[in-house]
């Protein structure tokens, strides 16, 4: 029984040794391919891959590439092409049809630029400023008396917009992450609840702030402020190239 176990372990160790040697050999071959001269690599192309390179070169020249430019592009592809050729993967399977690959090279698709948190925060805060400005304008328009608690002042509007902007931007960023990387709903709801509590505390504190620091506007003033804020947001989104939506 023990002899059988030793024999099995011996065979497993030998298999592992062989596999390790093969991996080292593959890594060595790959290293040699990527460090080899491109002229030498082009001589190692199979007939199918050589034909692919010929057609691709012709296509690039037809698309306006200079000979040196087309050669530079194809030379950069050769190591990967040879590496996959050894694995039995031809160029048309690796890159797709010649017309498709030439189009990708001539007209590369730019990945959308990811907007930093502060950019999305300002964008969202400006949107909330416009929304709250409209709300404050309606309140001022329909109220016959001035709010004694002074919770609809300009300072309140600015800080509240910044707080809502930060909270919603954080939430949106969590929702844009892959499901496997998102925090649990318990944690997310906890952060949202904390943010809302801080906002209510802030609103309560604003009742003690004098009007000299937190002045109020009339209805027209709030409406104008809302329009200006939305206009600034429109220009800011264009300047930053923001494509993300504020609300899903």
From TrEMBL:
<feature type="transmembrane region" description="Helical">
    <location>
        <begin position="219"/>
        <end position="236"/>
    </location>
</feature>
<feature type="compositionally biased region" description="Basic and acidic residues">
    <location>
        <begin position="1"/>
        <end position="29"/>
    </location>
</feature>
<dbReference type="InterPro" id="IPR036259">
    <property type="entry name" value="MFS_trans_sf"/>
</dbReference>
<dbReference type="InterPro" id="IPR009214">
    <property type="entry name" value="DUF1129"/>
</dbReference>
<feature type="transmembrane region" description="Helical">
    <location>
        <begin position="120"/>
        <end position="141"/>
    </location>
</feature>
<keyword id="KW-0812">Transmembrane</keyword>
<protein>
    <recommendedName>
        <fullName>Membrane-bound protein</fullName>
    </recommendedName>
</protein>
<dbReference type="Pfam" id="PF06570">
    <property type="entry name" value="DUF1129"/>
</dbReference>
<feature type="transmembrane region" description="Helical">
    <location>
        <begin position="191"/>
        <end position="213"/>
    </location>
</feature>
<keyword id="KW-1133">Transmembrane helix</keyword>
<feature type="region of interest" description="Disordered">
    <location>
        <begin position="1"/>
        <end position="32"/>
    </location>
</feature>
<feature type="transmembrane region" description="Helical">
    <location>
        <begin position="153"/>
        <end position="171"/>
    </location>
</feature>
<keyword id="KW-0472">Membrane</keyword>
């Amino acid at each position: 029984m023990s002899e059988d176990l030793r024999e099995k372990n011996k065979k497993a160790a030998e298999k592992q040794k062989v596999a390790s040697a093969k991996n080292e050999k593959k890594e060595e071959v790959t290293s040699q391919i990527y460090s080899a001269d491109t002229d030498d690599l082009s001589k190692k192309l199979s007939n199918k891959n050589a034909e692919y390179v010929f057609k691709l070169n012709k296509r690039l020249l037809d698309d306006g590439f200079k000979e040196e430019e087309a050669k530079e592009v194809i030379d950069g592809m050769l190591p990967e092409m040879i590496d996959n050729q050894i694995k039995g993967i031809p160029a048309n399977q690796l890159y797709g049809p010649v017309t498709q690959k030439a189009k990708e090279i001539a007209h590369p698709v730019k990945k959308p630029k990811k907007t930093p948190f502060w950019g999305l925060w300002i964008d969202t805060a400006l949107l909330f400023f416009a929304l709250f400005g409209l709300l404050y304008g309606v309140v001022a328009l329909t109220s016959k008396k001035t709010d004694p608690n002074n919770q609809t002042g300009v300072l309140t509007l600015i800080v509240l917009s910044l707080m809502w902007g930060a909270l919603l931007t954080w939430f949106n960023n969590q929702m844009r992450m892959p499901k496997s990387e998102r925090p649990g709903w318990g944690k997310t709801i906890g952060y949202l609840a904390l943010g809302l509590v801080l906002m209510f505390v802030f609103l309560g504190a604003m009742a003690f702030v004098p009007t000299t620091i937190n002045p109020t506007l009339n209805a027209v003033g709030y409406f104008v402020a809302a329009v200006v804020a939305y206009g600034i947001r429109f220009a800011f989104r264009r300047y930053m190239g923001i494509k993300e939506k504020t609300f899903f």
